[in-house]
Amino acid sequence: MTDYYRLKDKYILRGWEKLPYVIIDTQNDNFEFIDAEHMEALKWCDGNISITIPLISDNERKIIREYVSRGIVEPCEPGHSISKEQEYRFYPVRYVRAVQWSITGRCNFKCKHCYLSASEGKYGELSHDTAMYIISQLEACGIRSVKLTGGEPLVRSDFWEIVDALLEHGIRISQIYSNGALVNEKFIDGLTSRGLKPLILISYDGVGWHDWLRGVPGAEKMAERAMKLCADNGLKVAADSCFHRHSMHTIRESVAHMASLGASIVRVGGIQNSGSWKDNNEAGITPSDDELFRLYYDYLPHFFEDNLPVDLWLGAFMIYNYELNEFYIPGYMENKKPDDCLCSFRTDMYISPEGRVMPCMPMAGTILHDRMPLIQEEGLAHCINDSFWFNIVNLRVRDYLAANAECRNCEYRSVCSTGCRASALEDSPDNYLAKSQTLCTLIKGKWPEKIIELMKRIKPEAECRNLKK
User: Fold this and answer.
1) Were 13 and a residue from 88, 132, 180, 319 both cysteine, which residue would form a disulfide, CB within 3.0 to 4.6 Å?
2) What is the reported pTM?
């Protein structure tokens, strides 16, 4: 039996500040955080060193054999080396798992509700050279996964150059957002030739109402064609929908239609009063949180009657996972402790069209926007480690409670997670630490209890993930 071992090809070794030892499965982007002794044992598994040498301890040999049994390490012939990419690399920055990047602030549609006011090109578009610089910064900080969005990302003339540069730097493209107008056979061929299968997210705002909200005649047909084309070519498709008072009645028909076009994830929400919607909102058509919650509650029995094979995301109300037959109520019973981070995007970030590092896209245009750091001015490592962005995402629940006596003394404190900060800014534009009225409405309205009771009646075999904790 050989005394030489190597890390299997799909695994790489990495580390970041505070999280220095990580095994990454590059095929599915799974991360396993380990201790120093396990990492030292794995470093011997390079295909060139016999594990019989005295420098290797008995316990390290035991660890190596455990990794063999788990399928992470394999015996090999001497000299069957691992690749340079697999070797341990340490990044002197805090860990960021993934980035959503608006590679442009331009769009070929005129959506009434765009966070970025992209139809006006409000936030512009970075030059090709600056985009390449940002990609090099992502790689230098060990960021493994990027979601490409806009504006409309496919309007960039160098879209495929950006894709290729990301791949050359070892960065996986996990998602591409689009309005669907430019999703065609050429786009599919571009993905196929590169071996890419990202989740494709297409906007679709209700049967008969999509054109109105998107501001372009024929937009609904374009979105339908794009979803079907992607699904027919083996790509996973998600559909994003925004409903208003005129379109709410179409929810059952619309969700079923999106499923019939090949969407395996359908995300439904109301329109947030931000970006273009502040100027284009027609009086009285933005539904209240209670109206949306009632819509979702009344729709759920129809969803299960229709037996649709999709994951259903109902805004801040409920998420249902079809494969696991499990549902989750965001913000409910998450049991956040005082030292927990307030923002859920601490290990994810958003990069705006002008290169700003932000917690998420809905923060664009808020009072915090211009204070967020620019990568091309400060470098991404500095943005991650020591910037206004870090100060914001590093705020703790205790900071929130210190600023909100009402919440600190609330009878629902034990089941409330404090809520989304972008939602809080929508209601209180000058106060990042304000309460989230949406979550308040959910919790105080007893909607979680109503959801759980409803699901017991209509889908009794489905588990509630909130109650597993």
Assistant:
1) 88
2) 0.94
